Amino acid sequence: MPWPSRKRDKGAVADKKEPDAKIAKTEEETPDEEEEKSTKPPAGSSKSGWKNWKKTKESDSGGEESKITYCHWLLKSEPESRLEKGVDVKFSIDDLKAQPNQTTFWDGVRNYQARNFLRAMKLGQQAFFYHSNCKEPGIVGIVKIVKEAYPDHTQFDQKDPHYDSSSRKENPKWSMVDVQFVRMTKRFIPLSEIKAHHLAHKADGGPLKNMMLFTRQRLSIQPLTQEEFDFVLSLEEEKPH
Which domain of life does this protein belong to (predicted)? Predict the structure, then answer.
């Protein structure tokens, strides 16, 4: 039986060594409709040959989220022990690999936008497994959705840190999905490296220019476009800088 409520949305703290990418542990504290304030990035250039990256579509003038198609995801989890209301919320990709059939439920999400992203996930879609709130946050592997959204049982468990007394079994507020380990990335892809590309792409109009990892840092469930997913995945083939 996996640890209960190990993917956390409460008690948000910044990812160590990278204050711009905060783990989504207090998603409730940020209203869903409130956009994170973004800072103007410094000019920079991608170190991985962004000039060789072929864009698959022209950037739209408004950048409206409603026009963007998301088909992949990024899921944050904490690989290092941290007690929350007496429960260790640690859950690394190695913990996932140790589960029966390398499969588990992704519980404990208590932010409406993140919950809606969970509910939008489709069977077979892939997601990056992202280690957060640790010495060096970043992407460590790939998982896939093996069961679409259904009620998160932890919302009804009074012993669980994410118990929600206002949620009713006849109309549950919170959902979860089941994910299964697919593979480790060929190398660890650190947040700092992804951020460097994001800043360069904001200046150049590259695929990571609007990546939610930097525009809505507190969300523990984040959607990715095909372009974003493909570009980040391509980084595993490169030697770390």
Answer: Eukaryota
Evaluate whether 21 touches 195 at the Cβ level (below 8 Å).
yes
Lowest mean pLDDT among 19-28, 77-86, 177-186, 224-233: 19-28
Beta bridge partners of 83: 88
Kindly compute the dihedral angle of the four CA atoms of residues 63, 68, 74, 76, in this order, to the nearest 10 degrees: 50
* Cut 0.90: pTM above it: no
**What would you measure as the largest C-alpha separation in the chain, in angstroms?**
53
Q: What is the CATH number of the domain that holds 122?
A: 3.10.590.10
What domain range includes position 74? 70-186+219-226
- Which residues are CB-neighbours of 98 under 8 A, at least 6 positions away? none
